[in-house]
Design a protein that fits this description.
The protein has 267 residues and is of the alpha+beta class. It has a domain of 138 residues: Jelly Rolls. Helix content is 15%, strand content 35%. It has a 17-stranded mixed β-sheet that branches. Strand 12 and strand 13 form a beta hairpin. Helix 1 crosses helix 4. The longest helix has 17 residues. The protein is globular and about 45 Å long. The termini are far apart.
């Protein structure tokens, strides 16, 4: 028996030595809530159904279908609600609770709409978080806004201030204001909230978690657990940045073919 455990330990350590290096922020967030048909895809991998409690890594795209939604929460507390027929990508995310001004987050809204309440990433550096769209980049200087890409792009700020920047220039959208962007070369312009097309910037009335830090302490979440994308994301799992832990997760996936049974602290 001791021999078996010794062989297993050596195998795990060997996998850690050859496994891709995983930064300490490998698991940036998790799926807080989900309803309907929601799928996740890591890079160019195969889309898989997204379940409550799964973790999110870099280059993960979450897509909602008709009559569906997803609520995502990130380690710094940022909350994102995706409405139906939306595609949202985590392009970059680094959160350092000890030095929050060094944190950074870049998301892509590929289609559809989102509601975002920011956490601590923007608390020290208002340029640290942005949402890219085909028409303009949204700079988040405040704490809550909505955006929907319907050609044109529509945005509205509920709390704080956001900026819209493209090849034509930059415009600020303050709380209580809305704006539209026709194209990547057209300057954004303010619009009346009463003039928005029917259904645009309307979101499911679902409870959102508080925008407080939610440390990721393991490789899987509550519910079904695991990482979106399965083994692909699992290779980079382990929010503590310990290589052995990441290798153990990869080993577990390889042996069982199912999600890891580790836990994630979700608040």
């Amino acid at each position: 028996m001791r021999h078996i455990f010794r062989v297993l330990a050596v195998t795990i350590l060997g996998m850690a030595a050859f496994a891709p290096s995983a930064p300490s922020f490998a698991q940036q967030g998790y799926v807080h809530d989900v309803s309907g048909n929601v799928f996740g895809q890591v890079g160019s991998g195969q889309p898989v159904r997204v379940e409550k409690g799964q973790t999110l890594g870099l280059n993960t795209t979450v897509a909602t279908e008709a009559k569906s939604y997803a609520v995502l929460k990130f380690e710094d507390g940022t909350v994102v609600l995706l409405k139906e027929n939306t595609s949202f990508q985590v392009q970059a995310y680094t959160y350092n609770p000890k030095v929050p001004e060094n944190s950074n987050a870049v998301f892509n809204l590929l289609k559809g709409g989102l509601r975002m309440v920011t956490g601590l990433v923007t608390s020290r550096n208002r340029e640290a978080m942005r949402v890219a769209t085909p028409h303009a980049t949204i700079g988040i200087r405040g704490t809550e806004f909505t955006a929907e890409l319907t050609n044109p792009l529509f945005v509205a700020t509920q709390v704080g201030v956001i900026s819209l920047t493209n090849a034509a220039g930059t415009m600020l959208v303050a709380a209580g204001q809305a704006a539209s962007v026709l194209s990547a070369t057209t300057l954004p312009s303010l619009v009346s909230l009463t003039q928005l097309p029917a259904g645009v910037l309307n979101f499911p009335k679902v409870p959102l978690p508080p925008a407080t830090p939610a440390p990721i302490t393991g490789a899987a979440g509550a519910g079904t657990g695991g990482a979106v994308g399965g083994g692909t994301a699992g290779a980079a799992a382990g929010a503590t940045g310990v290589a052995v832990a990441g290798a153990a997760v990869a080993a577990g996936v390889a042996v069982s073919g199912q999600n890891s049974s580790s836990t994630t602290s979700h608040k």
